[in-house]
Amino acid sequence: MNRSPGFTLIELLVVISVVGILASMVVPGFTSFIRDNRLTSQINSLIGAVHYARGEAANRRSIVTLCASSDGATCDTTNWEAGWIIFTDSNNNGDEIVNGADEILLVQEALDGGNTLRASGFNFSGAGVFQYAATGFMLANDPQAGTFTLCDDQGASAARAIVINISGVSRLATDENSDGIVNNHTGSAGNVTCP
Description:
By secondary structure, this protein is an alpha+beta fold. 27% of the residues lie in helices and 19% in strands. It has 1 helix and 8 strands.
């Protein structure tokens, strides 16, 4: 009687068990990897938009507005995770696009993953509007530094932030006091917070 080569039921069960154990060890790390990459990508999109708005204001020698927008056409929210738009602002009203006079330069759709993105500290007409003057500096009567904070369900310990100084120059926030949470525009004394 010839024996045909193959796996026994016990060998197959052992292989399935080993694969299951390895998968249970890898999946949590992979989920964390995906969340971290999503946060990094989203904060990079925002800092790119801020740089673009500043550059366009200086290049066009006109006011450029960056604002939170849930519909891609108007400044209608203070929740930046809903998306944002950049447009030339000929009448400096900061929240309304004038047909024929203003031009939408960039539209960013809503952030995915249930993340939140909020602005704090700026001295503008609202937390959903950020403007650059023709000089490339922030446009406000009394400019103040501010922070855009991006959070997911991990809270402040995993948050990313962009700090913009009074001249309009942006940088990624860092953990200046080594407590594991990035600092906001107030410096090493204040950590970012998540809604």
